[in-house]
């Protein structure tokens, strides 16, 4: 089995909800009991509705959200880091090894900077090049890999389409030579034809630069296109993980099945699934007891309202957190 680049162990992220004069102040548990490994060189998908905690998990791995309980390890052969306890010096080193591609290519780029300066900024802030010539050479190298026209480096972002802007964002994220990249809804704001183009670019960059991706998306059909492994999140917990092909062949958790049945089929003979999600995702400030999905699950039993299901092996590389996943398949 491939060594994990990122190992998340029993992670919880809590945010305080105001103050309390009596007793412990209330907290919002954005993530609860998250354990997963992201293998080196993988394109690891994280899916779920908005409010499921996907972005918080990506941010926690990048040390941009508080680790309240548990740990996150990062090991790329050259360094071995505990994200929660690393020193300032180690954090500086980590910043060049782990980067984020933003969702919105319009908001992510400063309108007052040229494309060259936008891509060069991380090199200058992190002090990774010795002089302007070296910076320019690195900017040109990564811009070419991201299939940007080098003539455009002197222009400003407003001159570009959404797809071109996202290429600039990708070049900026990759210019420091990271090994791990979090792509948070990175194609959600783009037209479908441009989405495919950007996804293909990310896949080719993955093999060319030996990258590991955490690809966050609410769209399972996009995840199916690029990811080799998928984790499905619901209300701050992971309910299922599996190799992509297995997840789409046989989704085991009722929530995964409901998400898959929401994808429109182009096959006119395909039978529509009757497993539909109803109601909204409950508030993470007051999650349901037992299985967090029980308020929306058509297979819920009495045990589901009291006992928390844990992730367990379910065959063919899949893990599922459901007391009755086998029974719910029929
Ligand atoms: Fe549904 Fe119960 Fe399984 Fe939760 S544990 S998904 S409520 S059957």
What sort of overall outline do the alpha carbons produce when their principal axes are compared?
globular
* Radius of gyration over C-alpha positions, nearest whole angstrom: 21 Å
Q: Between the first and last Cα atoms, what is the distance in angstroms?
A: 32 Å
Compute the number of helices: 10
Largest sheet: 8 strands, mixed
Order of strands in the sheet with the most strands? 6-7-8-3-9-10-12-11
Q: Which cofactor or ligand species appear?
A: iron/sulfur cluster
Please count the beta strands (DSSP E, at least 2 residues each).
12
Strand content: 15-25%
> Helical amount among residues, as a percent range?
25-40%
Query: Could you spell the SSE succession in H and E letters?
Result: EEEHEEHEHHHEHEHEEHHEEH
Low-confidence blocks of residues: none
Main structural class: alpha/beta
Mean pLDDT: 90
Explain how this protein is built.
The chain has 330 residues and is α/β, with parallel strands linked by helices. The chain has helices spanning 54-61, 88-97, 115-126, 132-145, 162-174, 192-209, 220-226, 244-249, 254-261, 325-328; strands spanning 4-16, 27-39, 43-47, 69-75, 80-82, 98-101, 180-184, 212-217, 229-234, 237-243, 312-313, 319-320. The longest helix has 18 residues, at 192-209. The structure holds iron/sulfur cluster. The site of iron/sulfur cluster has 13 residues, from loops.
